[in-house]
Design goal:
Blueprint lengths: L9 E2 L5 E4 L2 E5 L9 E5 L6 E9 L6 E11 L4 E9 L7 E4 L3 E4 L3 H7 L6 E8 L2 E6 L2 E7 L8 E6 L6 E11 L2
Antiparallel strand pairs: 1-4, 2-3, 3-14, 4-13, 5-10, 5-14, 6-7, 6-13, 7-8, 8-9, 10-11, 11-12
Length: 178
């Protein structure tokens, strides 16, 4: 069994995050958040597969999963690096958080067709070498090589600045690819 979700492998602003078994819940407070903040792995990972089901309650807000990233502000747990995006039209895109913006947008028509905006969607991320594949509900959204992909880094779950929101990641499965 992977120790990926062991409580002592994660750091962040604890008032916003809860880890329960293989479920992670992030909740932005009433009045919302003024800044992006992340629940960050303490360990660094290189090649891996990460699968989960994710829901933005009521279809509100924005989240994402950082891969091969690093913390640049410990006070806010703000990060730098590639993000597998979750929310609005950005579901399934690869976005550079403080890392140059959009790396590869998911096809808009596919997102409209496939994503259930206020229910659970299965989401899979495979990152090996410079190659990243993102699938939602079994459909490929991003599949390509990214030259600027760092060699390794942390994985982190996002709460985006903005209104009150709740994101649930459940049935999380993680394995390193050797």
């Amino acid at each position: 069994k992977s120790d990926f979700l062991a409580a002592d492998n994660w750091e962040g602003l604890k008032e916003y995050w809860k880890i329960d078994g293989n479920t992670v819940v992030g909740t932005a407070p009433e009045g919302g958040l003024k800044f992006n903040t992340f629940l960050c792995s303490k360990k660094k990972y290189a090649d891996f597969e990460l699968k989960f089901a994710v829901r933005l309650k009521g279809g509100v807000g924005n989240s994402g999963v950082q891969i091969r990233s690093k913390i640049h502000n410990m006070e806010k747990f703000a990060v730098t690096g590639p993000q597998c995006d979750i929310g609005q039209q950005y579901w399934g895109s690869l976005y550079g958080e403080n890392f140059g913006g959009m790396m590869k947008a998911a096809p808009a028509e596919e997102v409209k067709k496939i994503v259930k905006q206020d229910d659970f969607n299965t989401y899979s991320i495979r990152c090996v070498g410079k190659h990243v594949t993102i699938k939602i509900n079994g459909e490929t959204m991003v599949d390509g090589d990214f030259e600027k992909m760092p060699a390794d880094g942390i994985i982190a779950f996002q709460l985006h600045a903005g209104p009150q929101m709740e994101v649930t990641f459940k049935d999380i499965e993680f394995k390193e690819v050797k």
